[in-house]
Design goal:
The structure holds 3 protein chains of 3 kinds. Chain A is mainly α. Helices cover about 75% and strands about 0% of the residues of chain A. Chain A starts with a helix and ends with a helix. Chain C folds into 3 domains: about 10-45 and about 200-280 and about 510-535, D-Maltodextrin-Binding Protein, domain 2; about 75-185, Dipeptide-binding Protein, Domain 1 (Dipeptide-binding Protein, domain 1), CATH 3.90.76; about 285-505, Dipeptide-binding Protein, domain 3 (Roll). In chain C, strands 13, 14, 15, 16, 17, 18 and 19 form a 7-stranded mixed beta sheet that branches. In chain C, strands 1-10-9-8 form a 4-stranded mixed beta sheet, with no helix packed on it. In chain C, strands 4-5-7-6 form a 4-stranded antiparallel beta sheet, covered by helices on one side. Chain C is built from 16 helices and 22 strands. Chain C starts with 7 loop residues before the first helix and ends with a strand. By secondary structure, chain C is of the alpha+beta class. Chain C has helices at about 10-25, 60-65, 120-130, 135-140, 165-175, 180-185, 245-250, 265-270, 305-310, 315-320, 355-360, 385-400, 410-420, 440, 465-475, 480-495; strands at about 40-45, 75, 85, 90-95, 100-105, 145-150, 155-160, 205-210, 215-220, 230-235, 255, 275-280, 285-295, 330, 375-380, 405, 425-430, 435, 500-505, 510-515, 515, 535. In chain C, about 30% of the residues lie in helices and about 20% in strands. The chains are: A mainly alpha, B mainly alpha, C alpha+beta. The interface of A and C includes residues 43, 218 and 232 of A. Chain B: Its main location: membrane. Chain B: It holds the Pfam family BPD_transp_1. Chain B: It is a multi-pass membrane protein.
């Protein structure tokens, strides 16, 4: 467990919380069996009032705890996949642009800039109203708005790697340029892009919440964002409905950040 | 021509291909959406019969193909005409100027607040990395960063507008109040306190962290060590050398965040009932008003380009190694 | 006070007793003299591109425009035929159904000072209602000409017998009169007066700030003596759902109509001192919560499956939990409020999941290995919070009887396109409006042979020759009782054959500061002219 030893206190805390969340997500069907959207009790039960619904129930009588547990699944799923999609697309575009140079670079970077000049959230909003909200389209919409940063970072890294010795060596060995780009350069350039991962995951969670707030959440799944969005009409009379998932959201984003910072710091320590 | 204007023009000309991609992309995106402006109109105005529907579609050019519509739009745009908003039944060129200044004001205030307070707190945290003060500010800023802006807005309204009644619930100014001059400015200011705070918080946290992290790195640099060895006072080193160098990446970030902040204004403006650009954008999407959305995206792209230009100019002022126009 | 006001009647009783108590205390409400002047700030709803109610007869438009432009008559709780006169003082249909005579009010002037005459009515009827108006095109389909023997008489002439009952019921909605001298000779649909309204109403159009507000100002020359009482009405647009409640509590607005305060928040807000909740004043614009069914889908073409779905829905849960008591269970396309047309004696479908399962088994759709019989695509209309919640509930209710309903959520234009043009749905949740007469916007949900793309109409692939014949006959039946009888028959047939499933009827809630007087005093109050509304200083 080299990585663990290299983590500082903050990073370890992040890792522990995140592991717990992932466990929660995996165990949700066992901890709270059945459809979390099922109407299982009296509406608007307060938390801690009824042992069957420890965190209470919502407007329709759905169990908040079950929603929270299953919400962990969808929320993390959407966040990880959209961050991963953004990173992969971004670093592929960045690698191609940096490695090919010339016209290809110019075209790819103009496209990247075009995406950057349009507010990412607006893009996600437009994309989701076009496709209609569901988990895959949410992932698509969020990554559409967030891939450009990875592209820029990777491209900058590729430009500095392109002239290094090992690339020249691969060239003399007669490797196909694209093979060089993706087998030799991308793995080396991916590091800096991956350090964006924490920010991307956190951003994805927040974008999903904001989209849900505006009414674009997957209606067949629970996410924390959709729980907050539904709870906010009763913000004054049943604040727990939005505070409970809100806390989960803050804790997760916090954990992701702490771990991300811990990782990048431990990286920096190693020469 | 003043150098600033020619620089701006040069930048915009250089950005023409980017703008073209943005326009075509947004057009295609909205064309791919199910339902058109007439569907949206009907939902608001009650049902129409088949004949009326066909007539309306013909009037709004929706009976023709997307290629025809795009050509018509591009031709008009080349002559400086932004087209006709189907949702508002007015020229896009008249709708946008009503909304853009409000959002620009909101963004400028939020950026200023986030930048100054964020980097100030960043300096306080980064002055002694690892201290209790640093840890407290770091974790607090992370927590703030994790709070969704809309949620913060809703809570601020309940506390400051409903319970304490210190500030207005929403809107940009008191309705038809007849106020003018400073009274009106004060009125607008009071309306903006909560939305600016909700919009600025996340960036404040971001700038705090950036500043603090960069300062942490600079402390390790040899020139700082040698300053210390020369016995120069701690806070003098903090302000004159460490903070001064650390502020550069924060300034760069300001430009990068301009687009993100425009996006954030969608939510904040709808929570606070502010008649701004972000809300208009969401409305344009919801009502399938392609010309309006294209006009908005065009203006926001130009806003972002100008913001980046300003940041570059500021960067040049702060860092003597960089000259503008590089 | 009571936690939840269960129905309008109970509510009215409650306010009456509160009034009685106040009277005993020596300060009877009736004794109070209205105070003139002041500004009423209301939570605004939408910003219609066309604000002319003669062209766009919809509630979003009426909410603002009804204060500026008046109809010939307005609904009323106590008037004859449920109407009270506005621009017309009396009306009468001929026995052959070929003409209708209106006596018009004298001494009425337009906001620009010109006199209102029968020429304005003739012009509005022929050029605007009949040609351009969404509902008028149905009601005045056979309008041929308008005779104006003098300045204050207008005689509508029809080419086919047209039931006067229908015309009379439609008066408040379809007869907003616009000034001939402003519209004549122009492109009516594009006339700037469609935004800068000119009417005869108690308020003049003041100012429109897009995204912020509409401002209406007192019409000093209003024909009703001593009215209006208010100086100004402001509609402030509040896009966020929580905003109206907050603004009311903070005393920044004084009134929120059309359930701008979410039902879920009403319980709390009704306890806030200084705020009053009104559950009446919307009877004339009853919305119906229905499940639309795509009969092209083989399973749904089977009556037993439709009956099973009807038996799976717990109306009690819908009324109590989703609508928090502010709705009524319904059994057919005419709301119980409409005494003329309502037929109580129809097939009813009690909440009975076991029976529903038995019906599905009978129909041959047994539960599979995963417990599912078949999968349906469910499209809840995105119009109201409650339609979405009912969508969530319906999915659960259907899961209980082994039908897997997958919710597809769309925004408004995509929803309309999917359901009414592309027919890309299995079932939906919809909210058609009942407008005082089945012929105005209700029979269109049952009639077959309509072209694809017409929203809020039978796009369900459903055709029933008997129902079509009833609708056709009623359209030209002059005798009011006979006509009502035909619609009662229609309700029986519809309840039996279930082309769609009626679940509940609901209207809206108004929340106002208790200083606002004369709220909800007619069945279309939110969209009436508010000339007698005043604010206690």
């Amino acid at each position: 467990m080299n990585a663990w030893r290299n983590l500082n206190g903050e990073g370890r805390m992040g890792a522990v919380i995140l592991t717990a969340l992932i466990l929660m997500a995996l165990l949700a069907p066992i901890l709270a069996p059945g459809d979390p959207l099922a109407i299982s009790g009296e509406p608007l039960l307060r938390p801690f009032a009824d042992a069957a619904h420890p965190l209470g129930t919502d407007r329709l009588g759905r169990d908040v705890l079950a929603g929270l547990l299953h919400g962990t699944r969808t929320t993390l799923l959407v966040a990880f996949f959209s961050a991963a999609a953004a990173l992969i697309v971004g670093s592929v575009v960045g690698t191609l642009a940096g490695f090919l140079g010339g016209i290809a670079d110019a075209i790819l970077m103009r496209i990247t800039e075009a995406f950057q000049t349009v507010p990412g959230f607006l893009l996600a909003l437009a994309a989701i109203s076009v496709t209609g909200p569901s988990v895959p389209t949410l992932i698509f919409a969020i990554s559409v708005g967030t891939w450009t940063q990875a592209a820029r970072v990777t491209r900058a890294e590729v430009l500095s790697l392109r002239e290094r010795d090992f690339v020249a060596a691969a060239r003399t060995l007669g490797m196909h340029p694209l093979e060089i780009a993706f087998r030799e350069i991308l793995p080396n350039a991916f590091g800096p892009a991956a350090s964006l991962a924490a920010i991307s995951v956190a951003a994805a969670i927040l974008i999903e919440a904001a989209l849900s707030f505006l009414g674009f959440g997957d209606p067949n799944r629970v996410t924390w964002g959709s729980m907050i969005a539904e709870g906010r009409t009763v913000l004054r009379s049943a604040p727990y409905l939005s505070i409970v998932p809100g806390i989960a959201l803050v804790v997760t984003v916090l954990a992701v950040h702490l771990l991300g910072r811990g990782l990048s710091r431990s990286e920096r320590l190693q020469p | 021509m003043p150098p600033l204007v020619s620089l701006l023009l040069k930048r915009l000309l250089g950005a023409l291909p980017v703008l073209a991609i943005v326009l075509v992309g947004s057009f295609l995106l909205l064309e791919a959406a199910s339902g058109d402006a007439v569907d949206s109109y009907v939902a608001r105005s009650g049902t129409l019969d088949a004949e009326q529907l066909a007539q309306l579609r013909q009037e709004w050019g929706l009976d023709k193909g997307p290629a025809y519509r795009f050509k018509a739009y591009a031709t008009a745009l080349a002559q400086g005409d932004l087209g006709w908003s189907t949702a508002y039944q007015r020229p896009v060129g008249a709708v946008i100027p009503e909304r853009l200044p409000i959002t620009l004001l909101l963004m400028t205030l939020a950026t200023t607040l986030a930048f100054f307070i964020g980097s100030l707190l960043g300096v306080i945290a980064g002055a002694s990395p690892g201290s209790l003060r640093d840890r407290f500010l770091s974790v607090t800023s992370l927590a703030i960063y994790a709070v969704p802006g809309f949620w913060l807005g809703l809570v601020l309204i309940v506390i400051f507008a409903v319970d304490l009644r210190w500030l207005p619930v929403g809107g940009i100014e008191s309705i038809a109040s007849g106020k003018s001059g400073f009274a009106r400015l004060g009125d607008i200011g009071a309306h903006l306190i909560l939305p600016v705070t909700s919009l600025a918080m996340v960036y404040l946290a971001l700038y705090l962290r950036l500043m603090r992290d960069r300062m942490g790195e600079i402390w390790h640099e040899p020139f700082v060590q040698s300053l210390r060895a020369r016995g120069i006072g701690h806070w003098r080193i903090v302000w004159r050398h460490v903070a001064r160098n650390a502020v550069l990446p924060v300034v760069t970030m300001l430009g990068l965040q301009a687009a993100a902040m425009l996006g954030g204004s969608v939510v904040v403006e709808s929570v606070f009932a502010i008649p701004g650009f972000g809300r208009l954008a969401a409305e344009a999407v919801a009502r399938r008003d392609t010309p309006l959305l294209l006009g908005i995206i065009l203006c926001s792209a130009i806003t972002v380009i100008v913001a980046n230009l300003l940041v570059d100019l500021a960067y040049g002022k702060l860092d003597p190694r960089v000259r503008t126009g590089r | 006070m009571s936690r939840i006001i269960l129905n309008r009647r109970a509510f009215l009783a409650a306010t009456a007793s509160a009034g009685a108590i106040a009277a005993l205390g020596g300060k009877g409400w009736a004794a109070e003299q209205p105070v003139k002047g002041g500004r009423l700030i209301v939570a605004g709803d939408s910003e219609p591109a066309n604000l002319n109610p003669a062209i766009v007869a919809s509630n979003g438009v009426f909410f603002v425009a009804s204060k500026v432009i008046e109809p010939l008559a307005e609904q009323s709780y106590e008037g004859k035929d449920g109407l009270s006169p506005r621009l017309a003082t009396s009306w009468e249909g001929s026995p052959d159904g070929l003409s209708a005579t209106f006596k018009l009010r004298e001494g009425v002037t337009w906001h620009d000072g010109k006199s209102f005459t029968s020429a304005d009515v003739a012009f509005s009827a022929l050029e605007v209602w009949k040609k351009l108006q969404n509902l008028g095109r149905v009601v005045f389909k056979n309008l041929d000409s308008v005779d104006t023997p003098d300045d204050h008489t207008a005689i509508l002439k029809f080419s086919q017998p047209t039931p006067f009952q229908l015309i009379r019921n439609a008066l408040p909605v379809v007869t907003s009169v616009v000034p001939k001298h402003i519209y004549e000779g122009t492109d009516i649909a594009k006339n700037p007066a469609n935004q800068q309204l000119v009417g005869t109403g108690p308020f003049k159009f003041g100012e429109y700030k897009p995204g912020e507000y509409y401002l209406l100002k007192r019409n000093d020359a209003y024909w009703q003596k001593d009215e209006p009482l208010l100086d100004e009405i402001v509609y402030q647009f509040l896009p966020d759902r929580a905003a109206a409640g907050n603004a009311l509590e903070a005393e920044q607005i004084q009134l929120a109509a059309f359930s701008a305060v979410p039902l879920a928040d009403l319980d709390r807000i009704s306890k806030v001192p200084g705020l009053k909740v009104y559950a009446n004043g919307y009877e004339g614009l009853t919305y119906q919560l229905i499940v639309e069914i795509n009969h092209r889908r083989k399973e749904l073409a089977d009556l037993k499956v439709r009956q099973a779905i009807a038996h799976a829905i717990d109306h009690d849960f819908v009324v109590k939990t989703i609508f928090l008591g502010y709705a009524k269970s319904s059994s057919g396309p005419v709301p119980a409020y409409d005494k003329t047309f309502f037929e109580p004696d129809v097939t009813k479908y009690a909440f009975d999941p076991a029976k529903a399962e038995a019906l599905l088994d009978e129909a041959g759709y047994k539960r599979g290995a995963d417990g599912n019989r078949f999968t349906l695509k469910l499209l809840p209309a995105p119009f109201f919070n409650e339609t979405k919640q009912f969508g969530n509930y319906l999915r659960q209710a259907l899961a209980k009887i082994g039908i897997d309903a997958q919710i597809v959520s769309n925004d408004t234009p995509a929803h309309l396109k999917a359901v009414y043009t592309d027919h890309d749905f299995d079932i939906t949740v919809a909210t058609p409006v009942y407008r005082s007469d089945p012929a105005i916007s209700t029979t269109i949900l049952f009639e077959s042979g309509l072209p694809a793309g017409v929203p809020f109409s039978n796009q369900y692939g459903y055709a029933n020759a008997e129902i079509d014949k009833l609708i056709k006959d009623a359209a030209s039946t002059i005798d009011a009782d006979k006509r009502a009888g035909l619609y009662k028959e229609l309700q029986k047939k519809a309840a039996h054959d279930l082309p769609l499933i009626n679940v509940a009827e609901f209207s809206f809630i108004t929340v106002a500061r208790d200083s606002v007087q004369n709220v909800s005093d007619n069945p279309r109050w939110a969209v009436s002219n508010w000339s007698n509304v005043w604010v206690k200083p």
